[in-house]
Specification:
Layout: H1 5-9, H2 11-25, H3 35-54, H4 62-84, H5 91-96, H6 103-129, H7 141-165, H8 168-183, H9 196-205, H10 207-219, H11 227-251, H12 255-258
Helix pairs in contact: 2-6, 3-4, 3-6, 4-6, 4-7, 4-8, 4-10, 6-7, 7-10, 7-11, 9-10, 10-11
Length: 259
């Protein structure tokens, strides 16, 4: 049930579906992929203005601080909502052609990963503008990104399989995304949570909180992330992708009848 070999044999299908996802997203759009740059910049401007107004102690280079957390969150939230409906949204393909169904949510994650990499361009520009140094600590983004891909894929597998049988899952995911945004330290520093037990619980229970904190350490603070916490998040991601894979395989035989 944990045989990943079919994914390698169908790697060309993964590539094509990933490209299709990107084309569909920006079809009939005059600016196309440029929206991946404009949208996070607009959010950064809004939150920077709000933060400067309400905070008595403005944070140095706050746009860099905010964008370093917003971009991985966008990657995660878009992957979560889109992969949940990846099976039901491709019902004609599922019914007519044989292929490992796992590549549907996987291609969604990969497409959003490409968008994330593109969106790093304005972050790099802001780092230059605000004098945030490019240091070797940025290399930590590679393993952090790998962990996020594993986490997003696991959740995508589980949620897409459940949504094929129970359409309420999509509605639940849409509702939960907003509160998850606020319990993930995107526009605030997790250090502001004074209760240490609560802070630790937040970082452990919400893997994205841990990942955003790790990204921010590498980008904004130019330091290595908390390796103990990052290792724990990696283990959580492995457990989630294992559960998601097994659940998807168990439920996939019912997809044709249910969709």
């Amino acid at each position: 049930m944990l045989n990943f070999a079919p994914l390698w044999r169908y790697r060309e299908a993964i590539r094509l579906l990933t490209l299709r996802e990107l084309r569909v997203r920006y079809s009939n759009s005059a600016l196309g992929v440029i929206w991946s740059l404009i949208a996070p910049l607009a959010m950064t401007i809004i939150f920077t203005i709000v933060f400067d107004v309400v905070s008595r102690n403005p944070m140095p280079a706050y746009p860099v601080f905010f964008l370093a957390g917003l971009l991985p969150w966008n990657f995660f939230s878009l992957s979560l909502t889109a992969s949940t409906q990846s099976v039901t949204g491709n019902s004609n393909l599922v019914k007519r052609v044989y292929f490992p169904r796992e590549i549907l949510p996987l291609s969604i994650v990969f497409a959003n990963g490409i968008n994330y990499l593109v969106a790093l361009i304005p972050l790099a520009v802001l780092m230059i503008v605000y004098g945030v140094a490019f240091t070797p600590a940025l290399l930590w983004m590679i393993p952090i990104l790998a962990i996020q891909i594993i986490l997003s894929t696991g959740l995508g597998l589980a949620l897409s399989a459940l949504n094929a049988l129970f359409r309420d899952v999509q509605q639940i995911v849409d509702i939960l995304v907003l509160p998850l945004f606020f319990v993930t330290p995107i526009f605030y520093d997790v250090a502001l949570v004074e209760n240490q037990a609560l802070k630790l619980a937040l970082l452990i229970a919400n893997p994205m909180a841990s990942l955003v904190t790790a990204y921010r350490a590498a980008i904004y603070s130019a330091t290595a992330p908390d390796l103990g916490l990052l290792s724990l998040t990696f283990l959580e991601a492995l457990v989630i992708v294992g559960i998601g894979w097994v659940l998807f395989r168990k439920l996939s035989d019912a997809f044709v009848d249910e969709i």
